[in-house]
Amino acid sequence: MKVTKADIVISAVGPAQYPDTGLPEIALAGRSNVGKSSFINKMIHRKGLARTSSKPGKTQTLNFYIIQELFYFVDVPGYGYAKVSKTERAKWGKMLETYFTERETLKAAISVVDLRHAPSREDVQMYEFLKYYNIPVIVVATKADKIPRSKWNKHVKQVKDGLDFDPNDEFVMFSSETGEGEKQAWQIIEKYIGYEG
Ligand SMILES: Nc1nc2c(ncn2[C@@H]2O[C@H](COP(=O)(O)OP(=O)(O)O)[C@@H](O)[C@H]2O)c(=O)[nH]1
Ligand SMILES: [Mg+2]
């Protein structure tokens, strides 16, 4: 998809604010700072539309970006940020659970992980949670530019083994720096939103 139009529609604190257009949604989940916002920006070729975090963990809202008037990227607040209170964390958990379990327009979740490291406990929990609710998952292993190509296979295996990756899900090596994986990611997203060009 060639994106010429993209805008933030709303930073929603709850379901009452979610868009009611019925357009398909692709949600991004992953820990703070893993590269969710950078992924969105790279995919739509807009440097600063999705805010890249200066204050990790601060965005406790679901940010809806409308793309080409066809679908939404939903940037979900990241997990794994230590400096949030128990109450905040519980609120965040409830918001995610409600969104992922009840949102009928959600077509797939992109689980963003860091190619450099073995998945964290929270990465694994998120993946299992999505699987449990039968949400199709696209695992995007980002920051591939930080690993030499000769070691990619080893790191892919580390990520897949750590997640107990289901071969029916999609897996994309990605870099917001180099654009690695962008084409493949678009092909997969287009399939899930039913876009035929
Ligand atoms: N080298 C490299 N840095 C990245 C990549 N993706 C994100 N980053 C950097 O990682 C930091 C966090 O990215 P951000 O998109 O804000 O993460 P978010 O919290 O998941 O939305 C920023 O400094 C980005 O520039 C990537 O593919 N390669
Ligand atoms: Mg972000």
UniProtKB/TrEMBL annotation:
Question: Do you know which PANTHER family this protein is assigned to?
Answer: ENGB-TYPE G DOMAIN-CONTAINING PROTEIN, MSS1/TRME-RELATED GTP-BINDING PROTEIN
Q: What is this protein called?
A: Probable GTP-binding protein EngB
Q: Which UniProt keywords apply?
A: Cell cycle, Cell division, GTP-binding, Magnesium, Metal-binding, Nucleotide-binding, Septation
One annotated Gene Ontology cellular component of this protein: cytosol
Q: Which PROSITE patterns match?
A: G_ENGB (PS51706)
Q: Name one GO molecular function term.
A: GTP binding
| Domain spans labelled EngB-type G | 22-195
Name the family the entry cites: Belongs to the TRAFAC class TrmE-Era-EngA-EngB-Septin-like GTPase superfamily. EngB GTPase family.
Whether Plastid counts among this entry's keywords is no
Please verify whether the record's keywords include rRNA-binding: no
Query: What processes does the entry annotate via GO biological process terms?
Result: division septum assembly
Q: What does this protein do?
A: Necessary for normal cell division and for the maintenance of normal septation.
> Which domain of life does the protein's organism represent?
Bacteria
InterPro entries named in the record: G_ENGB_dom, GTP-bd, GTP-bd_ribosome_bio_YsxC, P-loop_NTPase, Small_GTP-bd
- SUPFAM superfamilies noted in UniProt: P-loop containing nucleoside triphosphate hydrolases
Pfam families linked = MMR_HSR1
Which cofactor does the UniProt annotation name? Mg(2+)
